[in-house]
């Protein structure tokens, strides 16, 4: 049995679990409680991952895998789902670049959220938060341009990551109303969100 240190609100955990569902191995993963936090280290995670971050996957022999990029590729290989990570060639580099775009959007969104929810009020820097949200806006514009080329079923890791990134904005940044200015991305996300792997992994408060 595989063991996953997780947080139910983490978009990176969602990305891993969506891949697990697509690869047909979700029922082989035991969820381990943890309290990942950017400041307060959780020793339960740190015992397996020096970064003390989720997701962290523990294999049957005790080996730990991290971060989401590594875990997703492992699960795709374990479940014989090669379509998630196309073989070497144009489609692979495209999928990995789309994954980087989605991860980059998430990195910026999380930093913007932490500025308000983790950093003490007297040390918050509004310009920093706005700079992170500017990155989010640029990523949204890029996703809107890419949307006609994105798969709505049989996705690669690129589409999975982009879907999780847009879902995270719905979850944590509803005030951005990202759909209003990105109609093509909105249409793609509405269709992609109906995949069983995406419906089964919606984020929620613990």
TrEMBL record:
A Pfam family hit: GST_C_2
Superkingdom: Bacteria
SUPFAM superfamilies: GST C-terminal domain-like (SSF47616), Thioredoxin-like (SSF52833)
The name this protein goes by in its record: Putative GST-like protein YibF
Gene for this chain: yibF_1
Occurrences of domain GST N-terminal (ranges): 1-83
CDD domains for the chain: GST_C_6, GST_N_3
């Amino acid at each position: 049995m595989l063991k996953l240190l997780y947080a139910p609100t983490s978009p990176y955990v969602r990305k891993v679990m969506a891949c697990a569902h697509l690869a047909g191995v979700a029922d082989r993963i035991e969820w381990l409680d943890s309290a990942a936090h950017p400041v307060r280290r959780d020793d339960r995670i740190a015992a397996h991952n020096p970064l003390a971050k989720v997701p962290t996957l523990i294999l049957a022999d005790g080996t730990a895998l991290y971060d989401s990029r590594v875990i997703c590729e492992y699960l795709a290989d374990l479940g014989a789902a090669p379509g998630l990570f196309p073989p070497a060639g144009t489609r692979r580099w495209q999928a990995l670049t789309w994954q980087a775009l989605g991860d980059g959007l998430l990195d910026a969104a999380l930093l913007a959220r932490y500025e308000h929810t983790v950093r003490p009020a007297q040390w918050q820097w509004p310009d920093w938060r706005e700079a992170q949200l500017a990155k989010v806006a640029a990523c949204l514009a890029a996703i809107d341009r890419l949307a006609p080329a994105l798969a709505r079923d049989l996705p690669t890791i690129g589409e999975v990551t982009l879907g999780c990134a847009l879902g995270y904005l719905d979850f944590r940044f509803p005030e951005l109303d990202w759909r209003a200015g990105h109609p093509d991305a909105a249409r793609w996300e509405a269709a992609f969100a109906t995949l069983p792997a995406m419906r089964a992994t919606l984020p929620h408060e613990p």
